[in-house]
Write a structure and sequence with these properties.
This protein is α+β, with helices and mostly antiparallel strands and 280 residues long. The chain folds into three domains: 4-54, no CATH class; 64-201, D-3-phosphoglycerate dehydrogenase, domain 3 (60s Ribosomal Protein L30, Chain: A), CATH 3.30.1330.90; 203-280, 2-Layer Sandwich (Alpha-Beta Plaits). Helix content is 28%, strand content 29%. It has helices spanning 36-54, 77-92, 113-125, 137-143, 217-227, 258-268; strands at residues 4-6, 25-27, 98-105, 147-153, 161-168, 174-182, 187-193, 196-200, 205-212, 232-239, 245-252, 272-277.
Length: 280
C-alpha cells in the first residue's frame, strides 16, 4: 500500500497508534458516520466505489481523480468518449503531440472534465499493456509530452451534444473523430472522421479507407472482404467533392486481419487504411 488515509478506529477517540508513526498514513479525527446505520451506509458506498475502481470505471469520490462529481446527463458520454479515443488512436497510428477534447452542446454547461479523462483512457487503452484508468490516463499523456486541452462550447448546430477528439501528430498531420448519442435510446454514433461527415455505430469491428473517389471502389472492397469470409454489417461513403478525396467507413462482423487491410489498400489505391477493434 503506497498510502492510506484513516478516520475510523477500533477505539475512539484514538490518541495513540503505531500507525501514526508511518509516513504513508494520514490520520484524521472521526467526524462522520458515528451511528451504526450511518456506518453501514458508508461501508456500502465504499464497497460500491471499490467495485467501480476494480472494473476500471470512474469513481467520483476518489481523492486522486481529477473529474469531480459527474452530472447525470454527462455520464452517458463517458463510454462514447472512451470509444472515440480508441478510434482516434487507430486512425492516428501513433501518439499525438497535441490533443483537443471538444465537448459541444447542452452538456457543456456541466463540469465535463471527466469526458476528457474518458477520452484519454480510450486513447491509451490499445497503446500500453498495463490497465489504463481514469487516474493514470492523464499521467500517461503527461509522460509522453502530450499537450491536452479541454474545449467546451454550448453551440452545436447539428447535434444536441457532440464530443470530438482532435489531435496533431509529430509529422503535422491532423486527425479527428466526433461522436454523439442519438435519439431517445441514446445510440452511440460516429458522426465525423477527419472532416468527413457520416453516421455509423461504433460496433466491435470498424475500418476506414481514404481514397480518390471513382466508380467501382465499393464493389472491390465488398469482393475482397467476401473472399476472406468477412461479412459487412454496414458501410458508408463520404466525400468532399465529386472525384475528390473520399472515405469509406464500414462495420464488419469479424475483425479484418492486417494483411487483408493492406490488400484492400493496394487494390483500391487507398491513401490510408485503418482497422479498429473495440471488442474487449
Amino acid at each position: 500500500v503506497a498510502g492510506a488515509g484513516l478516520d475510523v478506529y477500533a477505539k475512539e477517540p484514538c490518541t495513540d497508534s503505531p500507525l501514526f508513526e508511518l509516513d504513508q498514513v494520514v490520520a484524521t479525527p472521526h467526524l462522520g458516520a458515528s451511528t451504526h446505520e450511518a456506518q453501514e451506509k458508508a461501508g456500502t458506498q465504499v464497497a460500491r466505489s471499490v467495485k467501480l475502481a476494480l472494473a476500471g470505471e470512474f469513481v467520483p469520490d476518489a481523492v486522486n481523480v481529477q473529474g469531480g462529481v459527474v452530472a447525470e446527463d454527462v455520464k452517458p458520454g463517458l463510454p462514447l468518449a472512451e470509444k472515440l479515443g480508441r478510434v482516434f488512436t487507430a486512425l492516428a497510428g501513433e501518439v499525438a503531440t497535441k490533443l483537443d477534447i471538444e465537448v459541444r452542446g447542452e452538456i457543456a454547461a456541466q463540469d465535463v472534465r471527466v469526458i476528457e479523462l474518458a477520452a484519454l483512457k480510450g486513447i491509451f487503452a490499445d497503446v500500453i499493456e498495463e490497465q489504463v484508468t481514469y487516474v493514470n490516463a492523464p499521467l500517461l499523456a503527461k509522460d509522453r509530452g502530450m499537450n491536452v486541452e479541454l474545449v467546451t462550447s454550448s453551440e452545436s448546430p447539428d447535434w444536441r451534444n457532440v464530443v470530438t477528439v482532435r489531435g496533431v501528430l509529430a509529422d503535422g498531420r491532423h486527425v479527428s473523430v466526433s461522436g454523439t448519442l442519438s435519439g431517445p435510446r441514446q445510440i452511440t454514433k460516429i458522426v465525423e472522421v477527419n472532416g468527413y461527415e457520416m453516421e455509423i455505430e461504433p460496433t466491435a469491428h470498424l475500418s476506414f479507407f481514404t481514397y480518390t473517389d471513382r466508380p467501382g471502389i465499393v464493389g472491390v472492397v465488398g469482393r475482397l472482404l467476401g473472399e476472406h469470409g468477412i461479412n459487412i454489417a454496414s458501410m458508408q461513403v463520404a466525400r468532399s467533392v465529386k472525384g475528390g478525396k473520399a472515405l469509406i467507413a464500414l462495420t464488419v462482423d469479424t475483425a479484418i486481419p492486417a494483411d487483408v487491410v493492406d490488400q484492400i489498400v493496394a487494390e483500391i489505391g487507398a491513401e490510408s487504411g485503418r482497422s479498429v477493434d473495440l471488442e474487449d
